[in-house]
Specification:
The complex is a heterodimer. Chain A is of the alpha/beta class. Chain A is built from 17 helices and 29 strands. The termini of chain A are far apart. Chain B has three domains: 68 residues, no CATH class; 231 residues, Alpha-Beta Barrel (TIM Barrel), CATH 3.20.20.60; 49 residues, no CATH class. Chain B has 13 helices and 13 strands. The C terminus of chain B is likely disordered. Classes of the chains: A alpha/beta, B alpha/beta.
Amino acid sequence: MDWTTNSIGRAVPVSVDGRLLRPFAGAYADSAVADSATSRSAATACTPMRAAGGPSRPAPGRGRPDKLAKNWDDLLDRMDLRSGMTISFHHHLRDGDAVVNEVVSRLATRGLRDLTIAPTALFPVHDRLVPYIESGVVARVEGSMNGAVGAACSRGKMQGMSVLRSHGGRQRAIQDGDLHIDAAFIAAPCADPLGNANGVLGKSACGPLSYPVPDSLSADRVAVITDGLVPYPCAPRSIAGGDVDWVLEVESIGDASKIVSGTTRLTKSPTQLLIAELTARFIEATGIMREGFSFQAGAGGISLAATVFLAQRMRARGVRASFAHGGATGVLVGLLEEGLLGSIVDLQSFDLEAVRSCRDNPRHIESTPFDSYGPRAAGSAANMLDVAILGATEIDLDFNVNVNTHSDGLLLHGIGGHTDAAASAACSIITAPSFRKRIPIVRERVTTVSCPGEVVDVVVTERGIAINPKRADLAERARKAGLPLVGLGDLMRQVHAITGVPDEPRFGDRVVALVEWRDGSALDVVRELAPSR
Amino acid sequence: MTRRKSDCTVEYSPGSGALSVAVESSVKPLFGRAIEAAARAAAAEFGVAAGELNIDDDGALDFVVGARVEAALRATGCTRTAAQRHAAPIQEPGPGRRRRSRLYLPGDQPDLLPNAGLFGADCLILDLEDSVAPSRKVQARVLARRVLETRRDFFGTSEIVVRINPLAGPFGLDDLAELAGCLPDAVLLPKCESAADIEALASELDNIETAAGIEQGRTLIMAIVETARGVIAAPSIAAASSRISALCFGAEDFCRDIGARRTAAGSEALTARQNVVIAARSAGVQAHDSVFSDVDDAAGLAAYCAASRALGFDGVGLVHPRQIAAAHAAFDPSPSELDEARRIVTALDDALAQGQGVVSLDGRMVDAPVAARARRLVGLALDAPGAEKGT
């Protein structure tokens, strides 16, 4: 056995059973690793080489770590960000978010370029990123694009190729290392100086702080930005301080009035109400609505109305649901408090009622992307669903669903949890009008496949219900219940008789975004619009 | 002007150059060519081959584009050169068909039209009167005519009714003239105050039907009484023409006319409503109650419909499709009512077969009047069109 002497003069073996040992070098000697490593994986691999520059992390040592940055410049100095890096954000300050625009504009001022932005979603407030896309500060987006940023991508303004992923797909990509995040900026309504953070307290309370959890676990650099700094310990905590490198206190992380802007008023659209009523009828008549069942329905007009109509049917039949999953609204909170719902498993709050409930009600449970949708999870909340009610911008004759692009080819929406819920729940229902304004929703071929027809069971429109031939069981039950069934081909012809047959959008050759299936495989591509437009 | 969903605005500038059509549209990549083609087709109907058409569109269907182009051309004095299209009514005529619900559609709002027939309303009212501003009367009239000419399929099995403006006013006769080639199933005449109002409309319809080669009396009249004079004249109004299918009550205008305040209990209009029912019944036509306009008050609507039915009305006016189910539920006989009615009919039929005119059922006397009411209930349940829909 070979021996060596460590820093306190004791002889220790060089190796044991073939495993190389590191001789003790002082109680805090390991701090050099934390200080210099550019990535966490490198830190665990024991490479005490100090990279030139590198982020300045508080060294593990005795006493309180110095994580509090003095101001934005101090934070960004300490983070040592460089051109070409990938920086991530979460979307639960929704349209009130001030952090994404602040960070990107400061990095632009510092001369950084060719950045990859990896948000969990973007909102209209982030339309202000477009000039940074045009100037090359932002080269691509990985995750989700909406509105003007998506349109800029469609028009070929991004230098790199973007990747569209679902919430579950994004979590998987981080877990598998497909999406390597150099720096995560986590806006937090409430946080302590160690970095523990939650979204339910503070003046900018937004509800769960679920979406940034994978980022906090895997990003090389993690900064919490808060306008609700509280003394340690911040409780409850969604983000663990141990995963956080720096904390920056700012005046405001966003506009509270837009952070929770969802409305729980029932839609007035007669067509949406008709679709919602038909959806609720389907769920009851096919026996999905039974004691202890579970459902997911979003906050859109049809989904919200379907939830209201489903609840009326549950009340009339004395049936209770075990849980609802996905986003939380005041409508769901009402059902929880009424006792019609056992729990809400929540990833995102849409209104103040949902924020309050998430904070105060132990049956209102904050989830994470892994727990809710993780493709690598050994079962997720979405797998526990009896039915998921989802939307679409287009549906084709093979039941493929497009949620990303409009029929004119513009990339305008993210995938969200759509494909994760569709692929995991026992029954997936797409609700959509058969046409919007003049645009047919039922198409021969969708413009972009966001979700393959293989996992789409039912399409509910105002002109009847179409059931995937793979689900003969559902079709049989629906037929017996006298529900109005229609084939997608017939439906498309009916719609064309109203709207006319649309021209095909014209695309260029360049691929501007890849649509990734939740397992990382390439599902489809989005092409640049023809330059003439 | 701001864009309206499923609508377009059109400006026409006459000129000497070949007709140019400029289209701005939210659906231009998909339907730009179709919009231009629809606009040129409408211009051709007016022999317009020169000038400029500027269209600002947010997803208007072809018939809407046609209507808006036509209105713009007419506003600059162009007149139709193509023959008027004729579209005959497609519904089976039926003064006695059920009218539990009459749903008002604002006449100048095209986005509501394509799905109007999906909700199962017994009557759909295309309104050219109160929901249309005076400056938009021509636009609404042309839109109504074009949808009746080309898209009657939008209305499903509902009875198609147009509420025209009062004939004595500045718009009513023009409304009727516009509809000459495409008569609806019925014309709803507001503010009726005398039999002469009905006779004037009936006489216009006689002329239109003769000119169009349609069977005389095919087009029905629904009459609204909504003033003190109207309520007093209700019996003669209801009996003024064989075209009358229903006498309707308008509470809002009535209360204003008599200086009453509307209350939830509705006692201010109770006598008037009873008079309308009595007048309708004495003339053998249906009685239709006023509109319930608070869309969000489901409990109020149910109570209102139940009270209407108890007074003897056959149906109510509605402003939103989501109100239809409640109205139909209230005016349809309930299963227990139907069951009792069937037992009454059977009991009296059995008695009659044995030469008895009266029979006792569950301790109550059943005679001809009781059985007649029971037969009416059973009959209603049998011939309710689309009774399954909207429920």
